[in-house]
Design brief:
Strand content: 5-15%
Helix content: 40-55%
Largest sheet: 4 strands, mixed
Order of helices and strands: HEEEEHHH
Structural class: alpha+beta
Keywords: Membrane, Transmembrane, Transmembrane helix
Number of domains: 1
Number of strands: 4
Number of helices: 4
């Protein structure tokens, strides 16, 4: 029973939180460039939850396993690349932190959740940096381009935006 509770906590709390952190990694460079940013966690019909200055966070209840950050179409190539790299960079830092936290002797629950978060962030990092278009079994990401593919396209593009 404890294992079921641990996985429920991992899937329902930790994964959405780590996804939000990844999306904030995309948002921060844009906020520094004075752009309006909308982060959606989940799929259809997100409800506005948080508004801080130019940052809007919306959450779709019962559909919180993926996230998207709006990216301004008016970014120069360097701004776009920095914005696209922001999410994977935050995910990498989180993976490194969670890996260290797995070694801390702070109890079974702490170790379980740190390990769960570590493996999720490694998975997230690999699949966001891989230059792919997500297949249908990726659910809400189906048909969208990964950060890695968008970075490559931005670097190859001669114009301001891809």
């Amino acid at each position: 029973m404890e294992l079921v509770f641990g996985y429920a906590l991992g899937f329902l709390v930790l994964m959405p939180l780590l996804t939000l952190m990844h999306e904030l990694g995309h948002a921060i460079p844009q906020l520094c460039m004075k752009k309006k940013v909308v982060i959606d966690l989940g799929g259809s019909s997100p409800i506005p939850i948080i508004k801080v200055s130019r940052l809007f966070i919306r959450i779709a209840p019962f559909s919180i396993f993926h996230g998207f950050c709006s990216i301004s179409s008016r970014l120069l190539r360097v701004g776009l690349v920095v914005t696209l790299l922001g999410g994977p960079l935050v995910t990498l830092l989180l993976a490194m932190l969670l890996n260290e936290l797995r070694m801390v002797d702070a109890g079974q629950w702490f170790t379980f959740l740190a390990s769960f978060g570590f493996y999720f962030t490694v998975f997230q990092l690999v699949f966001t940096l891989a230059p792919i278009k997500y297949p249908s079994f990726f659910g809400g990401y189906s048909g969208t381009k990964s950060d890695g593919l968008r970075i490559l396209e931005a670097l190859r593009c001669n114009e301001s935006t891809p």
